[in-house]
Amino acid sequence: MKKWGLLGASVILTAGIILFFFQDSEVGAATGGVTAQAKVNPNISVSVNVSSILLEGIPGSTVTSASPVVVNVKSNVNYNLSVKATQDLTDASVSPALTLPISRLSWAPAGTGTWTAFSLTDTSIATNEPKTLGRGKDYSFDYQFAIDPNDAIGTYTTDIIYTAVAY
User: Fold this and answer.
1) What is the second-level CATH architecture of the domain 44-166?
2) Which of 1, 22, 37, 60 has a C-alpha 20 to 30 A away from that of 125?
3) Alpha helix locations (H) across the chain?
4) Which helix (H) or strand (E) covers residue 139, if one does?
5) What is the pTM of this model?
6) What is the top-level taxon of the source organism (predicted)?
7) Domain positions in the chain
8) Contact in structure between 139 and 160 (CB atoms under 8 Å)
């Protein structure tokens, strides 16, 4: 009997230890968590259908672009659109460089004939424009260059920058 008593005590003790470990792991269980955030940032892109445009003519003439410059704005936020030139019209192929005032180069919404001289500061084109979906929104512009009879012969350049800003 003593053998069974010792064996029974061992089984009970072993079962107690096993139960103790199972109970302890349940009581000691812990959880963790994380807060997931998904953020959609504003995204605006501006593209222009041509990289350069040539307006050429003789002194005393005014020349207009043969086809419009198309500016496309894609935006997931409302925006304002502006335009500016980076410098006066400049012919850097000679020294000293020749310049013509940027105000001699103008833009107009395509087909309207309502001309606005380019400036070295931002000029508003469109304000409070709603966000665009899919293909974006196109803005078409004619360009015009007034050539003075006293202008020196040359190829004058400037960069025109279109900027869309979220509001």
Assistant:
1) Sandwich (2.60)
2) 60
3) 2-27
4) strand 137-146
5) 0.79
6) Bacteria
7) 44-166
8) no
